From TrEMBL:
<feature type="transmembrane region" description="Helical">
    <location>
        <begin position="101"/>
        <end position="122"/>
    </location>
</feature>
<feature type="transmembrane region" description="Helical">
    <location>
        <begin position="249"/>
        <end position="267"/>
    </location>
</feature>
<feature type="transmembrane region" description="Helical">
    <location>
        <begin position="167"/>
        <end position="188"/>
    </location>
</feature>
<dbReference type="InterPro" id="IPR011701">
    <property type="entry name" value="MFS"/>
</dbReference>
<keyword id="KW-0472">Membrane</keyword>
<feature type="transmembrane region" description="Helical">
    <location>
        <begin position="48"/>
        <end position="69"/>
    </location>
</feature>
<dbReference type="Pfam" id="PF07690">
    <property type="entry name" value="MFS_1"/>
</dbReference>
<dbReference type="InterPro" id="IPR020846">
    <property type="entry name" value="MFS_dom"/>
</dbReference>
<feature type="transmembrane region" description="Helical">
    <location>
        <begin position="143"/>
        <end position="161"/>
    </location>
</feature>
<keyword id="KW-0812">Transmembrane</keyword>
<feature type="transmembrane region" description="Helical">
    <location>
        <begin position="338"/>
        <end position="356"/>
    </location>
</feature>
<dbReference type="InterPro" id="IPR036259">
    <property type="entry name" value="MFS_trans_sf"/>
</dbReference>
<dbReference type="GO" id="GO:0022857">
    <property type="term" value="F:transmembrane transporter activity"/>
</dbReference>
<feature type="transmembrane region" description="Helical">
    <location>
        <begin position="209"/>
        <end position="229"/>
    </location>
</feature>
<feature type="domain" description="Major facilitator superfamily (MFS) profile">
    <location>
        <begin position="14"/>
        <end position="387"/>
    </location>
</feature>
<feature type="transmembrane region" description="Helical">
    <location>
        <begin position="362"/>
        <end position="383"/>
    </location>
</feature>
<dbReference type="GO" id="GO:0005886">
    <property type="term" value="C:plasma membrane"/>
</dbReference>
Length: 406
């Protein structure tokens, strides 16, 4: 395994700190849904439907807020957005234990809209700090940090919420406040010196000049990826339950995350780029054979190819988006990408779950993998049919000083 690409990226000024802070800042995001689920169920004695409604409202708000916050970062800088969203997020999660269910549901949408823009901020900063020819490695590191957060944080939220659901919400509030403070203190650049020079005196480009076939294809692919991931997770649990092995679900899901970590590490060290749509198609097709498994260990073995392609698919999309749009609108574009990921994650599990209820667990893998593959094909079709002249490829540049843009 060639570690040179990682050494080069981590030697760039500020990148190591950004990766560490970015990974830590994902923990409250990863813990939120489980903490809220347990609070509504145990603390407020609500139903799973009521818990799902609050999570859905948070998700819808976050999907809209991601794009809005990204555009605001482009216009006013990072620190003002972090200050407002950091305070709003901490206030909501601190006061959530005191709210009745109707008030909680009403505030959830607003809390989602004002959620701390962790994902877009880190990806936008990496695009500013890392030369284009090294971003694949940087985004692979970022994807691995995300995997670690989503392995550890939900389990921690369940452990704390099982004892005291209100304590879990306070923990989320504390972690969110710390994340906002760390990002505010770090204040990573969202544009580099060369980009700022190019933007000087120029009007912000209209959306129609960059929200074209290739960019729309990446948004569709992001939805497809998280539909496949969310639907695949539900299908694994349902399949194991159908064969009386539900207790092994945690093992299989943990291995899936581990395979993704390994895949992200390998992909980040490659010397060549692979198109995100090919990676997505491979991941989705690799989910289909899982419909034939009947034991947890067989599922874990068959899961290796799909798992190995998870982190590479998502990191390749971030890399592609960073190169498809002008630097002046990168925040908005990354916000749109984050919104697409959020939407796919929100609709994937319910849609696949409904199919499982009507047709059985094996069909969940068909729906998750097949749906993602169809969206990958739709993205390829958009790129093929797009006749608009593509902008010049962003040239590779040497590492250079970056400016504070807040």
């Amino acid at each position: 395994m060639n570690l040179t690409p990682y050494k080069r990226v981590l030697s760039l000024p500020g990148v190591t700190a950004l990766i560490i802070v970015g990974s830590a800042a994902r923990f409250p995001v990863a813990a939120m849904n489980m903490a809220m689920l347990f609070h509504v169920r145990e603390g407020l004695h609500g139903s799973y439907l009521q818990a799902g409604l609050v999570s859905a409202l948070l998700t819808v708000g976050a999907a809209v807020g991601s794009t809005v916050n990204g555009r605001l970062i482009d216009r006013v800088g990072l620190r003002p957005v972090l200050a407002v969203t950091g305070v709003a997020t901490a206030v909501f999660w601190t006061t959530a234990p005191l709210m009745s269910y109707p008030v909680l549901a009403a505030c959830a949408l607003l809390a989602g809209l004002a959620a701390l823009p962790v994902f877009g901020t880190i990806r936008q900063a990496l695009a500013a700090m890392v030369p284009p020819d090294q971003r694949r490695t940087a985004y692979s590191l970022d994807a691995m940090g995300v995997e670690i957060a989503f392995i550890v944080a939900p389990a921690g939220a369940i452990f704390i919420a099982s004892a005291n659901s209100e304590a879990a919400l306070y923990c989320v509030a504390g972690l969110a406040a710390m994340a906002a403070l760390m990002l505010f203190r770090l204040n990573p650049p969202t544009k580099n010196a060369e980009e700022l020079a190019e933007m000087a005196g120029q009007a912000r480009p209209a959306r129609r000049t960059w929200l074209r076939g290739p960019m729309v294809a990446m948004l569709i692919a992001a939805v497809g990826a998280t539909i496949a991931l969310g639907g695949g997770e539900v299908s694994m649990v349902a399949m194991l339950k159908a064969h009386g092995q539900e207790s092994q679900s945690a093992i299989v899901l943990g291995l899936w995350a581990a395979f993704s970590l390994i895949g992200g590490f390998v992909y980040g060290g490659l010397n060549r780029e692979v198109h995100p749509l090919l990676l997505l198609l491979g991941m989705c097709v690799a989910l289909l054979p899982l419909a034939l498994t009947t034991t947890w260990w067989a599922m874990a073995l068959v899961l290796i190819p799909a798992g190995m392609l998870c982190a590479p698919s998502l990191s390749a999309m971030s890399d592609k988006v960073s190169k498809l749009v002008p630097a002046s609108v990168r925040g908005e574009a990354m916000g749109m990408h984050g919104s697409a990921i959020t939407v796919g994650g929100a609709i994937g599990a319910p849609i696949v779950g409904a199919i499982i209820d009507h047709l059985g667990a094996p069909w969940g893998f068909v729906a998750a993998g097949g749906g993602g593959a169809l969206l990958a094909f739709a993205g390829w079709l958009l790129i093929t049919l797009d006749r608009t002249p593509a902008p010049a490829e962003e040239p590779a540049r040497a590492a250079e000083p970056v400016l504070d843009t807040a």
